Amino acid sequence: MGAGQGWCLLLCLALSRVAADPEERQWREVDVVLDCFLVEEDRHPGSLASSRTTVEALLVLRQVPVLDDGSLEAFTDFQGGTLAKDNPPVTFEASVNLVQIPQAEALLHADCNGKEVSCEISHYLLQATEKKASFIANVQVPGGGPSVSMVMKVLRDAENGAVLHPTLKLPLSPQGMVQTAVELQVTTQTPLLNFLLGSSASLHCGFSVALGLDLTGVEWRLQHKGHGQLVYSWTTGQRQAKREGASLESEQLLLAGDASLTLPSLTLKDEGTYICQITTSLYQAQQIVQLHVQASPKVQLSLTNKALPPTLICNIAGYYPLDMTVTWIREEPGGAPVPVSGASFSSLRQSTAGTYSVSSFLKAEPGPEGTTYTCQVTHISLEEPLRSTAWVAPPGTRSALFSPPPYLGSWLACSQLIFGLVLLPSALCSALPPFPRWQPP
């Protein structure tokens, strides 16, 4: 078990207590400890190639304000002396006094919720001349949780007699930690988004900058299928929208740390990987938001011809993305629904908007009392499958167009008679009882 995992185990035991009333919750400063990897790249002289090595590391965010639900009363600060003496991880102690960490609660509770936080630390190359060393930490909570990037400036200088880290050659504190301060953080609460075609989307990007650093630019770019393009840019006093209708929050919110992007009337061209890049007078950091655009299918059941036995056609139109499942279900009066095989499909069609359409065909084989057929469509854009249902008249029906018996009653309000087929829109008829048994004259 790593040092961070042991510390989090103690935290989880504390969090297992009964939570306080939400109105009684107060802010409390706690240490957030994350198991990380330190990534180092070694460039070979005279070559552009480099090798990438990773070593275990620990990130200790000192005294981060979080809302206390009453479970942090017995919580104690992280002590560097608890680290293993044999091959201890590279430990970064990071002060957050200069910036805000808005997603600290999610980082604090992630391990207790069974989520292993991804944390990677690497050297940061400064844009301007600066004597102090800097690192950047990229932290991600899995399962759609927040993502945070933090630029950390090393605080201690190499003094005479100071203990240096054997590989980083940086001075260590008496507790054996590299002392840093977070001077820029960029966060997104929603790294993965799904929106329906034609709707409006808001892509979250928040940031916090240390005093003394100036915000000089915000840029949103879109990467999709190997192509990159500028969507929106902001510099002091200037805005440029390359995508029609794209906008950032008001200037007041932008200067307060909100660089969220709004995209109205989504099309399939808006799908892809969005990069929110925050630039200051010294540092630059970014966050990535994956935007998926979806379109829900429309399902219609009909006949392809008048011949008996009839052939049912299920038209599925206007869906995106491509993956979609069609299931045919057959049900005799008084019997259980049974999946039916043997359906065929038309060629795939794509509209100018990029959505897909396809048709599924099935030969109906009605029983002596008629049979109910259902075309069921499953798609990622749907919370529940779409169903379109038809009742096929039994063999020997004298007329293709027929009148149902009087006791079908309310079914007439939600039925359409086409060539001996009773079409039942599931949205209107789902609450009605099953068809009664009926023998044709």
Into which percentage range does the β-strand content fall?
A: 35-45%
Estimate nothing, just give the exact number of structural domains: 3
Mean pLDDT: 80
The side-by-side strand order for the widest beta sheet comes to 1-2-3-7-6-5-4
Subcellular location: Cell membrane; Endoplasmic reticulum membrane; Golgi apparatus membrane; Microsome membrane
Keywords: Cell membrane, Disulfide bond, Endoplasmic reticulum, Golgi apparatus, Immunity, Immunoglobulin domain, Membrane, Microsome, Repeat, Signal, Transmembrane, Transmembrane helix
Protein name: Tapasin-related protein
Main location: membrane
What would you say this structure looks like, in words?
The chain has helices spanning 3-15, 104-109, 251-255, 426-429, and strands at 26-43, 50-68, 90-95, 118-123, 134-140, 147-154, 178-188, 192-196, 201-203, 206-209, 215-224, 227-235, 238-241, 247-248, 261-263, 272-280, 284-294, 298-303, 311-319, 325-331, 338-340, 344-345, 349-350, 356-363, 371-378, 386-392, 416-418, 421-425. By secondary structure, it is mainly β. A hairpin with a 2-residue loop joins strand 27 and strand 28 (421-425). The protein contains 4 helices and 28 strands.
